[in-house]
Amino acid sequence: IKLAVLVSGNGSNFQAIIDAIEAGRIPNTRVACLISNKSEAFALERARKHNVKTIVLDHKAYPNRQAYDTALVELLRQHEVDLVILAGFMRLLSPIMIDAFPNAIMNIHPALLPAFPGLDAQQQAFDYGVRYTGCTVHFVDKGTDTGPIILQSVVPVLGSDTIESLTQRIHGEEHRTYVEAVRLFCAGRLKVEGRKVIINE
Ligand code: GRF
């Protein structure tokens, strides 16, 4: 299975996935390329350290989202990518990307969807006063954070939490949860039926 990981920044989720692959926990799988829309993303350094091919695809070099996504699809096809992993990729995808990879684009969101979609989900949950939040791995469809849910992990909000401590605990769960979702996909165990993701034995 060939993965492409799309990032804009830090890339700790990418790190967790590459570590899992190197440890043999996701068999028959490799990261064909790491694509960043930002040349200064720290994730690029992480990729170089693990001999993963890096590509910077700067959105500012394209007139609009359609043109950018067309270039992205072409790159992904060139690399014969089976699964596209969004890991802190701070751009919305147009139907050009979604239609090119149906149920083959994954995203991680730092809240329990459908609660708190969009930006600053940890802050939204913290400000709302929920007792539990967490993270969600889902397939990407044409909406924002609306696609079929693959896995979720719950993180309790403690009385002593600040937004920083809460964000950090969610991040830890993200790494574990994303690796597990990718492992299931790569083992051929995920099937999408309507809104539901079936996890086969
Ligand atoms: C994570 O919080 C993820 O939920 C969100 O973007 C962040 C990426 O973190 N989509 P990192 O770059 O993987 O450290």
Automatic annotation (TrEMBL):
Protein name: Phosphoribosylglycinamide formyltransferase
Transferase among keywords: yes
Binding locations of (6R)-10-formyltetrahydrofolate: R65, M90, R91, L92, L93, N107
Record-annotated Formyl transferase N-terminal domain positions: 2-182
UniProt xrefs under CDD domains: FMT_core_GART
Function per UniProt: Catalyzes the transfer of a formyl group from 10-formyltetrahydrofolate to 5-phospho-ribosyl-glycinamide (GAR), producing 5-phospho-ribosyl-N-formylglycinamide (FGAR) and tetrahydrofolate.
EC number, as in UniProt: 2.1.2.2
Annotated site location: Raises pKa of active site His: D145
Active-site residues annotated for this sequence: H109 (proton donor)
Pathway the protein contributes to: Purine metabolism; IMP biosynthesis via de novo pathway; N(2)-formyl-N(1)-(5-phospho-D-ribosyl)glycinamide from N(1)-(5-phospho-D-ribosyl)glycinamide (10-formyl THF route): step 1/1
NCBIfam families per record: PurN
One GO MF term: phosphoribosylglycinamide formyltransferase activity
Catalytic reaction annotation: N(1)-(5-phospho-beta-D-ribosyl)glycinamide + (6R)-10-formyltetrahydrofolate = N(2)-formyl-N(1)-(5-phospho-beta-D-ribosyl)glycinamide + (6S)-5,6,7,8-tetrahydrofolate + H(+)
Keywords: Purine biosynthesis, Transferase
UniProt-listed GO biological process terms: 'de novo' IMP biosynthetic process
Family as reported in the entry's similarity comment: Belongs to the GART family.
One of the record's GO cellular component terms: cytosol
Binding residues annotated for N(1)-(5-phospho-beta-D-ribosyl)glycinamide, in chain numbering: G11, S12, N13
